[in-house]
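FW: tagging you since you asked about this chain on Friday. Here's the raw sequence from the shared folder, copied in full. Didn't touch anything.
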Amino acid sequence: MPKFFAHPNALVETDQLGEGTRVWAFAHVLSGAKIGDNCNIGDHAFVEGGAVIGNNVTVKNNVCVWDGVRLEDDTFIGPNVAFTNDRYARSPRMETVRTRYEKADNWLERTIVCRGATLGANSTIMPGLTLGEFSFVAAGSVVTKDVSPYVLVAGNPAHPIGSVCECGKRTQSPGDRCTDCD
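HL: got it, structure written out here
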């Protein structure tokens, strides 16, 4: 008996799904994807075979987690977050770029969302970035550069506007604890 839950209308092709993880309706998890324990994969999410998702991760509805994306433990990925993994995307069928797509090393840029980070709804994450521990990306932001730990970014392009506690509340400086967590 499986130690995870997959909605009857979900398509789970991987055998690397952690205990207590839930995959909801119309989500599709490809073979080779690695998903840890106690995760929640929302409706209409898509997880590609080269994606890695840690423990206690929430991936809300309509999120695509592509090859090369790693979500570390305790991350929150809001609805409609858009990850990218190819900075110069073209159709691999196009004759002039076909050879570039013969090896992933020629085009795939890896993205790391570090432990405890939050990505707000409808944010876009450009490829090849690292979003630091407990960083916070405001809804609708377009992230084009690495984000430091405990930093809150917003806008297009996203830029630092403050810092946050591990609980997500605003603080004076990165790494500070809010009054609720002292």
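FW: The CA atoms of residues 84 and 127 lie 5 Å apart.
HL: agreed, and The chain is about 0% helix and 30% strand.
FW: great, closing this out.
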